[in-house]
Amino acid sequence: MSMKEWMDLDIDQLELLEVDDLEKARVKKHVLNRQKKSSIWRNMVVSAALGVSVLTVATGFAFPSLVSQIPFMDHVISYFDDEEQHYKNFETFSTDIGLAQSSNGITVMIDNAVYDGTNVTVAYAIETEHDFGEVMDVRAPNWFDVSEASGSGGTSKITKISDNHYVGLETFTPHFEENQHPETIEVTWKPEAFNSFSNELEVEGDWSFAFSLNRVEGDIQLVNETVQQKDVSFTLKSVEFTDVSTVISYEQVVSDELLKEWPSVTPTFHISDDLGHVYLDGGGGGGTSHDNGKAFYGTTDFGTIQEGASKLIIQPVEIASLMSGKGHIEVELEPIVIELQ
Question: Which Pfam families match (predicted)?
């Protein structure tokens, strides 16, 4: 599709497709741990890197004014209606990125991104000349790489909205030394190939993006409340309220005896308010441990608090696992009730 055709695209011509169970289950790259490495930044703030290789030719352009003329490209986040509560303020407080790269018949366009001090969310769109079927996947060795971060973990989702258009949503947590939260982060993303889940199609190419994000400021409420059982002690350190999310920070200590029996012990949460709204039911978050899981420091985020709520109820549920699907148990701790200020 030419650029003129993009600009003339009529949103009424796009046939929205139902998302099947396979797509809903595509929460992947849950632990993307990698060794810390240096990143080269040549003043590439909100600019795409252009590249030419022997096998592929890539073109790149920044187009903040063009985005509004491409109906499905504008407001990508709106296609993820099942998570509307979580991302309801995304459009208002996110950063307009407006970058595009084309290679081997696939154009990738980054729409918006937001960094809440803990997590990063990136919304993007894909136009392709190839038939990838109902579910597309992307191969990128370092995924979204954040300068100065030692690793990251998160989730990825790509949804088909018409025959040759897809929208994607990435949410990930970069891990920094000593649990730091930089005011500004620099992000690079270099997909190497796109492939299909329904056939053996894989299309390699040359795409490269670089942009920076400023932290969305929030209000921090210190908690420092501990709940424990015999083998697990969990301390909720704080809750941060931003315009786009709510972030809880915590640490836990697990006994040597429990780790001998169950080598992985990670927290998940049931989080609700006094009005009955449920914000998280079984989800977890990113974190770090320097002693093989005995002490764990982590964060978890969810949507903004509903208006009128006066209490937040956070119940940790520890998943003690043998890993690799070999079995697990759940250890429920007492809920922590926070009076909202």
Answer: DUF4179, DUF5643
